Amino acid sequence: MQQPALEAIELLLNNGIALFVLAQNLYEFWVIATRPTNKNGLGLSAADAESHLSRFETLFSVKVDTPAIYSEWRQLVCQHSVMGKPAHDARIAAAMVVHGISHLLTFNKPDFKRFQGITAVTPGEIFNVLSNP
User: Fold this and answer.
1) Residue boundaries of the structural domains of the chain
2) Residues 67/98, Cβ–Cβ less than 8 Å
């Protein structure tokens, strides 16, 4: 999955499209990056994970958490009866709404279908999105 994601990001950057990452995405990266490989993680040291965070911060504008995100998240989970792990996706949608971000690059497009104003796009769809904005 890494190669299609890298190609999509490169294409977006080469087309002058501003890319953002949410603080939540960076928290989740840290968890996966530092989790042992035998527990479905990357097994990186804290220093290596920090190096990757620094790289992400140079490539993407980081959108930080604000109190408004909680209020939006609460509204979304109640409105859509979100239960369990999908509440993490609702938090991403809430942060996007608060920060005025309309498009999301994701491999999990169906997880965001319920949220109005959010257009989820897979890496493989980037070429179509750029030709039909």
Assistant:
1) 2-65+103-125
2) no
User: What is the pairing mode between strands 20-22 and 61-63?
Assistant: parallel
**CA angle 66–112–2, rounded 5-degree value:** 90
Half-sphere exposure of 4 (CA within 13 A, CB side): 11
C-alpha 95/C-alpha 98 separation (Å) is 5
What is the reported pTM? 0.87
**Phi/psi class of residue 117: alpha, beta or left (left: φ > 0; alpha: ψ in -120 to 50)?**
left
pLDDT per residue over 35-88, tens digit each? 999 999 999 999 999 999 999 999 899 999 999 999 999 999 999 999 999 999
SS3 132: coil
Q: What is the spatial distance between Cα 83 and Cα 55, in angstroms, rounded to a whole number?
A: 34
- Side chain identity at 114, as an amino acid letter? R
Distant-in-sequence contacts of 71-75, Cβ < 8 A, 24+ apart? 72/97, 72/98
Q: Exposed/middle/buried for 45, CB within 10 Å: 0-12, 13-18, 19+?
A: exposed
User: What backbone phi and psi angles, to 5 degrees, belong to 121?
Assistant: -130, 135
